[in-house]
Design goal:
With 254 residues, the chain is an alpha/beta fold. A seven-stranded parallel β-sheet has the order 6-5-4-9-11-13-14, with helices on both faces. The longest helix has 15 residues. The termini are close together.
């Protein structure tokens, strides 16, 4: 792991935990505490973190950090998916990112990408981007109480005025369906609008989504460029899904 990769992983840890000690980071990365201190000084100089005596913390506490700490399920898998998705974003791209824990992991991979613009209907992502000086468009609307996604006519209006290079959308599950699904129709409509106004669309979904049913289909597989999924999916499930859509598997090396 080179220094740039280590810096990104340190950011990921701080987004998840909010605060971490130098010694803990040194053990995680199998490097000296002096190396970690140099890493933290560089990240602090970029206004990404705040270095304390023997520890570091995320620069600005927000609901984004709180959300990250609450989203503990399958974190490693979601981070693998996020790394692969982030690597696919060309320079100077405009991207849609909708709500969800995997999409939040993607956003956390992008906080050093000063060349991009992010349009999102998810407040934790808005705050994370804004806190790290990434150009961000907050898509407004009525906020769903469970998912935190902004939906409704105003969200549709905002999205319709944006021409995006890539849309990254989440899915609640797609068992037995001919397209990705979500739990409610208002969010399905927002995803449809993002897909309509993006040149390419990728569904970010951990392997558990292969075995979950959801009520509201938001696209046919023919409308989706690809599904980015972690490598823990069963080979037979992947083979079946690949008959319908391109599947990109994210492993630990991604």
């Amino acid at each position: 792991m080179n220094a740039a990769e280590r810096h990104q992983e340190i950011i990921n840890i701080l987004v998840q935990k909010g605060h971490v000690r130098v010694g803990e980071l040194a053990k995680i990365f199998s490097v000296s505490t002096e190396t970690i201190r140099k890493d933290l000084l560089e990240l602090e100089s970029k206004r990404l973190i705040k270095k304390n005596n023997g520890s570091a913390e995320i620069l600005r506490e927000s609901s984004a950090s709180a959300y990250a700490r609450k989203s503990k399920r399958d974190v490693k898998e979601k981070q693998c998916i996020a790394r692969l998705a982030a690597a696919m974003i060309p320079e100077n791209s405009v991207i849609f990112i909708d709500a969800g824990s995997t999409n939040f992991q993607l956003a956390s991979q992008l906080i050093m990408r000063k060349d991009i613009m992010v349009a999102t209907n998810f407040t934790p992502i808005v705050e994370l981007m804004n806190a790290n000086d990434i150009r961000v468009i907050s898509i407004g609307g009525e906020v769903r109480p469970v998912s935190g996604a902004a939906t409704g006519p105003f969200a549709h209006y905002c999205i319709s005025r944006i021409n995006a290079d890539i849309a990254f959308v989440g899915s609640s599950g797609f068992l037995g369906t001919d397209g990705p699904c979500v739990e409610n129709f208002p969010e399905a409509e927002v995803k449809q609008e993002m897909i309509k106004n993006a040149q390419r669309t990728y569904v970010l979904a951990d392997h558990s989504k292969l075995h979950i049913r959801a009520i509201a289909k938001f696209a046919d597989w023919s409308e989706i460029t690809g599904v980015i999924m972690d490598e823990h999916a069963a080979p037979e499930d992947i083979k079946e899904l690949q008959k319908k859509v391109d599947v990109l598997l994210a492993g630990k090396e991604d």
